[in-house]
Design brief:
Blueprint: H1 7-21, H2 31-41, E1 47-52, E2 56-57, E3 60-61, E4 65-74, E5 80-83, E6 98-103, H3 104-107, E7 111-112, E8 134-135, H4 138-142, E9 148-158, E10 161-169, E11 176-182, H5 189-207, E12 214-220, H6 224-232, H7 234-238, E13 240-246, E14 255-258, H8 266-278, E15 282-285, H9 294-297, E16 306-310, H10 332-351, E17 354-357, H11 380-393, E18 395-399, H12 400-407, H13 411-423, E19 427-429
Helix pairs in contact: 1-5, 1-10, 5-10, 8-10, 11-12, 11-13, 12-13
Bound molecules: zinc ion.
Zinc ion (ZN) binds next to loops.
Length: about 425
């Protein structure tokens, strides 16, 4: 993976993709997921899988499929005072169908708003407990007069399927890197669409790159999707050596890395190394058993080396799970920056190998091999130090990431030094 890409164009492509997906009403099942995966399929050749409702996936059962055509509350004059067609967050996600007339008092227990954010519509779901409801701004709620309201949710909850997408990039090794993102949120830009857009474009770049590792990208509904995927892919999961859950990568906040349950896996070290050399200030958090799908990948029966790399993470930005998590919250530039960090992490994973110094008894004479001054003359001392570090620690038990950490130098510099030393026969790969 080189660095000569047009990141601005990639940022724009990711943003445009998020904008195309934004109007679709998604949920953990249903046609919104299928339409979203169709948009992903325009970027990469996605394999789409359907797991039937009722299928047992570990301790869970794939739920009935939910689809919604229309939903509104109309006043006695027939005017729609809450209208799903204006914003799909207005309907409680997974609402059962209803067609009834009721007073404001009867309606109110089914209305959800945010008193401390009175202009925003909250995002609420009721996946595993049958219910119906509407979400609206607190201002709009307060403005509803006493009246007889017509309440319509034209939805279906029927046997169908849970849909997910998968894209596999074959590398030289059977060992895999997993990149996972959820696809189940409706019109929410940062928490969801930014992750899908980044994962799709990272997948496209890797698909063209003939990588060393094999890469598996999964586009799944949150929680039930990763549980379903893991239950159907237990053997494949054993091949996953490193993984990341991509989420909230479009806002302008600091990067946040949530470590895998293992805490010191290569992926944890690779991400933290890249962030500490490239990203200025960033947050790192230890694993905890909540959050996104990393909690399934990191359940004790799998304990995969999967962390989560985001900007501002869930619950930490005020717009989280509200109508204010819209296309204005994310930008092409932020998406491009996030993709760049993901690419650097991939670069570390791809090139983190163990080498053996072929001239271990005292330093080899680098000048006569043209290596002093021959490697990037503008930053000569750093490059010379990188050569010395690689030679000194390449004793068969230190990988290039170990060396970069110990030398406190950017991985890229250590990688270039190793390449130069390999070129003149002073190193050979240990594996
Ligand atoms: Zn969410």
């Amino acid at each position: 993976m080189d660095d000569k890409r047009d990141m601005a164009a990639l940022g724009k492509a990711m943003y445009d993709m998020a904008a195309r997906m934004y109007p679709i009403c998604r949920s953990i099942t249903g046609d919104g997921v299928r339409s979203t995966l169709k948009i992903v399929s325009q970027v990469i050749p996605l394999q789409v899988h359907e797991v039937p409702s009722g299928a047992q996936v570990f301790d869970w059962v794939v739920p009935r499929e939910w689809n919604v055509r229309d939903a509104y509350v109309a006043n006695s004059r027939g005017e729609r005072v809450i209208d799903f067609k204006k914003h799909n967050l207005h309907v409680l996600n997974y609402s059962s169908p209803i067609n009834a007339t009721m007073s404001l008092a009867e309606l109110k227990p089914h209305l959800f708003s945010l008193p401390d954010k009175p202009d925003w519509i909250p995002y609420r779901t009721s996946y595993y407990r049958e219910n119906w409801g509407f979400c609206l701004s607190h201002k709009a709620l307060l403005a509803l007069p006493e009246d007889q309201y017509t309440v319509v949710i034209d939805s279906t909850l029927e046997p169908g399927a849970l849909t997910y997408g998968e894209y596999y990039v074959r590398g030289e090794l059977a060992d895999e890197v997993l990149i996972s993102c959820h696809i189940c949120h409706p019109s929410l830009a940062n928490d969801n669409l930014s992750g899908i857009a980044l994962a799709s474009h990272l997948a496209r770049l890797l698909g063209d790159a003939r990588p060393r590792y094999s890469y598996r990208f999964v586009f799944i509904p949150g929680t039930i999707g990763s549980i379903a995927w893991l239950s159907r892919n237990e053997e494949t999961a054993q091949r996953i050596k490193h993984g990341l859950v991509v989420v909230c990568v479009g806002d302008g906040g600091k990067f946040t890395y949530k470590k895998s349950r293992r805490g010191n896996a290569v992926i944890d070290r690779a991400v933290l190394h890249v962030l500490s050399h490239e990203a200025g200030e960033f947050n790192q958090i230890e694993f905890y058993p909540y959050g996104y799908d990393e909690r399934q990948y990191c359940s004790p029966g799998f304990n995969l080396a999967v962390g989560s790399l985001s900007r501002t993470t869930h619950g930490e930005y005020p717009q989280y799970h509200t109508s204010a998590d819209d296309l204005d919250l994310i930008s092409p530039r932020n998406l491009a920056e996030s993709l760049q960090v993901y690419l650097k992490v991939v670069d570390v994973i791809e090139h983190d190998r163990i080498y053996i110094n072929q001239n271990p008894k005292c330093e080899p004479q680098l000048g006569k091999r043209g290596l002093y001054g021959g490697v990037g003359a503008t930053a000569r001392p750093a490059n010379e130090m990188a050569l010395l570090w690689v030679l000194n620690l390449s004793d068969g038990s230190h990988s290039l990431l170990d060396i970069a950490e110990r030398a406190n130098m950017p991985f890229e510099q250590i990688k270039h030094a190793a390449k130069a030393l390999l070129g003149c026969g002073l190193l050979r790969a240990a594996d």
